[in-house]
Amino acid sequence: MPRVVTAVYPGTFDPITLGHEDIVRRALRLFDRVVIAVAAAYHKKTLFTLDERIALARQSFRDTSQVTVEPFDGLVRDFVRAQGAQAMVRGVRSTTDFDYEAQLAGMNHNLMPDVETVFLTPSPAYQFVSSTFVREIGLLGTEVERFVAPHVLALLDARKQGGRKP
């Protein structure tokens, strides 16, 4: 039986953007399975609840059985091991991202030397897109449909109109 190579893509995904989607779809060219690990992120003030962030990510990848979306809390190392993953995927947009991610990869390698960290840069159209920018710009009334899928935009618009806030 052939070995299934699994990668974990951890993050807060508040909200998931087209840049995140780009990274996942490109990771699928390298790995048989990608698990999007949505961090509970209790230490952060998120716009969307954990359940909403999971639902948005699942809807983004409803077209492929190679992607699963799961919540996690605690050390990503424990989640990666529980998934039986051989790699972690990290998106890197800039040298600032790279500096932080390289340090994180070094620590993760120390904690789990049998798991590789793979850096992927987003396609040029998404190199400047971040969840933080999308939240801030979207809530201030500027159009962000170029940066998120329609189902994400709908929930962001609802939040902007005074919909339930976590």
What does this structure look like?
- The protein has 166 residues and is of the alpha/beta class.
- The protein has a single domain, classed as Rossmann fold.
- 40% of the residues lie in helices and 17% in strands.
- It is built from 6 helices and 5 strands.
- Strands 3-2-1-4-5 form a 5-stranded parallel sheet.
- The mean pLDDT is 91.
Number of strands: 5
Low-pLDDT residue intervals, each spanning 5 or more residues: none
| Number of DSSP helical runs | 6
Biggest β-sheet, characterized?
A: 5 strands, parallel
* CATH topology-level fold name: Rossmann fold
Order of strands across the biggest sheet? 3-2-1-4-5
What is the CATH architecture term? 3-Layer(aba) Sandwich
Strand content: 15-25%
How many structural domains does the protein architecture include? 1
Q: What's the gyration radius in Å?
A: 16 Å
Mean pLDDT: 91
Give a topology summary:
Elements: E1 6-11, H1 18-27, E2 33-39, H2 50-60, E3 67-72, H3 76-83, E4 87-91, H4 95-111, E5 116-120, H5 131-139, H6 150-160
Parallel strand pairs: 1-2, 1-4, 2-3, 4-5
Any key phrases for this structure?
5-stranded parallel β-sheet; globular
Summed up:
It is built from six helices and five strands, in the order βαβαβαβαβαα. The chain is of the alpha/beta class. It has a single domain (6-160), classed as HUPs (Rossmann fold, 3-Layer(aba) Sandwich).
